[in-house]
Amino acid sequence: MGLVGTIVTLPFAPVRGIGWVLDKVRQTAEEEYYDPAPIQEELVNLERARSEGRVDEEEATRREDELLRRLQEISAYRAQQGAGPGP
């Protein structure tokens, strides 16, 4: 893109910069949302609470089902993205 092209497109530089920042924010949010580690940690904590009697069996089962569905969603997303099933 020569000098003329650079000068002509210069007014759009802030828009391109904002677009780049928004893309990075989206990528970071997706990485955090589709990270299985917090879900796995919550499953461990739930099992600990169940064994200590802080959570009744019905509530533990309901919550465990929710967490396992979330892990399946993460696994499907990662497979779709080509990242594999993850850790």
Percent of residues in helices: over 70%
Q: Report the span from N to C terminus.
A: 44 Å
SS field, number of helical segments = 4
Order of helices and strands: HHHH
Mean pLDDT: 89
Q: Largest beta sheet, briefly?
A: none
β-strand percent reads: under 5%
Overall radius of gyration: 22 Å
Number of strands: 0
Low-confidence stretches: none
Structural class: mainly alpha
Describe the structure.
The model has no long low-confidence stretch (mean pLDDT about 90). It contains four helices and no strands. The termini are far apart. The chain has about 90 residues and is mainly α. It has helices at about 5-10, 15-35, 35-50, 55-80.
Q: Which helices and strands, and how do they pair?
A:
Elements: H1 3-9, H2 13-33, H3 36-52, H4 57-81
Helix pairs in contact: 3-4
Keywords:
single chain, 87 residues, mainly alpha, 4 helices, 80% helix, 0% strand, rod-shaped
Question: What's this model, at a glance?
Answer:
The chain has 87 residues and is an all-alpha fold. The protein has helices at 3-9, 13-33, 36-52, 57-81.
